[in-house]
């Protein structure tokens, strides 16, 4: 009987300990993966405390959506589709750099110029970023 009581106390202690450790290490970070190819979806800004988003005008009609590809090696590739004058075919131009995630910030560096954005939302299907000027960029998978 003593062994059983001791075992129940031990199980209760482990349970309480596990509940009390709520993973504060992430401080608001999500467990959704950041790495991968994200297609540009919407852009906007904050006006009077409210987000004003529109369909990204950077995306050319008839072409695939522009994208940001965050690779495992911390390389970022931005893809920009355009339709040249006198052509009906979409052309892809890519720009490569590096990226670093620090808590809820994403810093991309292209050609020596760094840009840091807050990760406002990160789910399996959406990545919403906001820079210090309040400009918002929404990507989807």
Automatic annotation (TrEMBL):
<feature type="signal peptide">
    <location>
        <begin position="1"/>
        <end position="20"/>
    </location>
</feature>
<keyword id="KW-0732">Signal</keyword>
<protein>
    <submittedName>
        <fullName>Lipocalin family protein</fullName>
    </submittedName>
</protein>
<dbReference type="Pfam" id="PF13648">
    <property type="entry name" value="Lipocalin_4"/>
</dbReference>
<feature type="domain" description="Lipocalin-like">
    <location>
        <begin position="34"/>
        <end position="129"/>
    </location>
</feature>
<dbReference type="InterPro" id="IPR024311">
    <property type="entry name" value="Lipocalin-like"/>
</dbReference>
